[in-house]
Amino acid sequence: MLRLFVIAVPLLVAVGVLLAESKLRLEGSDRQRFAKFLGGAIAVGLLCSGITCWQQTKMADQVEQARQAAAAGGATATWQSEQSKLYEQKISSLQAQVTDLQSQLAKRPENPQTTAVDAAVKQQSAALPKIYWTQADEAGGGTAVRFKIYGPVNIPAFIAVCDRPCKATHGEIGSGSAGTQVVGTTAKMAGYIFSKPRPIQAGTEGFVIIEPGTSKVEEFRILGDSEIPPALR
Q1: CA–CA separation, 102 vs 52, rounded Å?
Q2: What is the per-residue pLDDT across 17-54, written as a single tens digit (0 to 9) for each?
């Protein structure tokens, strides 16, 4: 559109000059026509100069805009390229971390908590805590030894020393507890080892039933590690 305008305006100006010249030839003296023609030529020259200057300014603006757009596009492309590289590096780093974690998990046992607990309860506590106990007759002909532990115990194993031959029939240290009786080194000793729960915490209370009910418990204590049969640890 601009090119057509640039071509059309000078043509129109030239046509106007020719028309003006033909008219000037019909009117006035030679000197007057020459003065008018000279004035018209100057006006036309100034007009063409103005048009040319405007065209050059317009074209320069367009070229500058195109250059700025190209520069902006190049900067944007460079920034996008740098950001893409940063994202790729971050993704690679995260993938490496995930791979490392997966390899670490693969090396761990399936149930590390259970393994740690099992390892802990295979050996009795280094220092056995104090125990408080009382004896009372139980309905059905047995004697109930009720106790309270004042410290944690890895293997809840107990022994009662009676004044006559006795045995431990069953016991309890909370809901869902289970255990088995152990024959002592003499007929006057009755042991009981809980298989669960293990370990037990400080403040745990429970009881063990001793038979016969006529027997008197003279001592009730926690078994040490060397006194517990290996198969029951």
Answers
A1: 74
A2: 556 656 555 456 667 666 766 676 677 667 766 776 67
